[in-house]
Task: inverse folding
C-alpha cells in the first residue's frame, strides 16, 4: 500500500456518509440512477462517501452494476 | 410510480396456489443467476475449492436470498426494477458466503502487519521526514483507540480482513462493525488535526 492508500483506509472519506444498512437499502436505486445518467450522488447524498469508505459495500455496488450493465447490453 | 412489470412480479409472488408457486420458482431462477454471477467473478478467492462446492455456494446464496426477498416484499417501493432490487439480495448472500469460505481456517493478521505497512508507507513517500512523523502519530493515535475500534480499524482498514468475516468471528454485523470503524476514523482525523497534521483523503467536502 502506498501513502495515500493507507491514509485513505485509516482515515476514511472524511465526509458525511450513509450506514451499511442505508447503503443496501438504496443500492438498486443508486445503480439505476447512474445507469440512466441521472445525478445519483445528489439524489442519494452520502452514498459515494460510504462506497469510498466501506470495501464490502463498494464490492456489492460493483457486482450489481456489472450484472445490471451486462444484462442491458 | 411502479411500472406494470414490477407490479406483476409482486402480485404474482403473492398469488395463492400454483400461480404463486410458479412465481417463486421464477424468482429463485433469477436469484440463482445472480448468485452464480457473483461466485463466478470471485472464483479466484475460491481456488482451493472443488468445482461442485462453488455451485453449492451459489445454490445456498439463492435459497437464502429467496427467503430474504419474500420476507421483504412489502418493502419493495418500485423505485427500481424488481429484478435489480432482487438481485442485490442474491449478490450480497453470495459475496458474504464467498468471503467467509475464502477465510475459513485463516487467522486474522496481527497488528504487527499493520504497523509494518504504516512504517513502510512513511518511509517510502516522497516527503520522508514529514511522513515519518505523520505515520508515527497515526500509529500512536490508533493505539489510543478503545479495544473494539482499534481491532476493527486494524483488521478491516489496514490488514484487509473482509468486514463480514470479522463480523462472523466477533458475533457482530457488518453495520455494527462499520459504525466502530467510522467512529475510529473520525477520532483519528480529529486527533491528527489537533497535532497539526492536515490530511486529505479524497472524500466529499463536508
Result:
Amino acid at each position: 500500500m502506498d501513502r495515500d492508500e493507507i491514509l485513505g483506509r485509516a482515515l476514511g472519506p472524511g465526509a458525511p456518509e450513509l450506514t451499511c444498512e442505508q447503503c443496501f437499502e438504496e443500492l438498486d436505486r443508486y445503480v439505476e440512477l447512474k445507469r440512466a445518467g441521472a445525478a445519483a450522488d445528489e439524489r442519494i447524498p452520502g452514498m459515494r462517501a460510504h462506497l469510498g469508505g466501506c470495501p464490502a459495500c463498494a464490492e456489492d455496488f460493483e457486482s450489481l452494476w456489472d450484472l445490471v450493465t451486462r444484462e442491458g447490453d | 410510480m411502479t411500472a406494470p412489470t414490477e407490479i406483476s412480479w409482486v402480485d404474482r409472488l403473492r398469488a395463492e396456489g400454483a400461480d404463486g408457486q410458479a412465481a417463486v420458482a421464477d424468482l429463485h431462477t433469477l436469484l440463482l443467476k445472480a448468485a452464480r454471477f457473483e461466485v463466478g467473478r470471485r472464483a479466484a478467492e475460491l481456488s482451493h475449492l472443488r468445482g461442485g462446492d462453488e455451485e453449492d455456494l451459489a445454490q445456498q446464496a439463492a435459497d437464502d436470498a429467496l427467503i430474504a426477498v419474500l420476507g421483504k416484499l412489502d418493502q419493495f417501493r418500485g423505485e427500481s426494477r424488481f429484478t435489480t432490487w432482487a438481485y442485490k439480495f442474491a449478490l450480497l448472500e453470495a459475496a458474504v458466503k464467498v468471503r467467509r469460505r475464502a477465510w475459513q481456517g485463516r487467522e486474522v493478521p496481527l497488528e504487527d502487519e499493520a504497523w509494518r505497512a504504516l512504517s513502510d508507507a512513511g518511509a517510502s513517500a516522497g516527503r520522508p521526514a514529514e511522513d515519518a512523523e505523520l505515520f508515527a502519530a497515526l500509529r500512536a493515535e490508533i493505539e489510543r483507540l478503545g479495544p473494539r475500534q482499534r481491532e476493527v480499524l486494524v483488521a478491516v482498514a489496514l490488514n484487509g480482513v473482509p468486514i463480514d468475516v470479522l463480523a462472523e468471528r466477533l458475533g457482530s454485523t457488518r453495520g455494527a462493525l462499520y459504525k466502530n470503524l467510522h467512529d475510529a476514523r473520525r477520532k483519528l482525523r480529529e486527533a491528527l488535526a489537533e497535532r497539526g497534521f492536515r490530511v486529505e483523503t479524497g472524500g466529499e467536502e463536508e
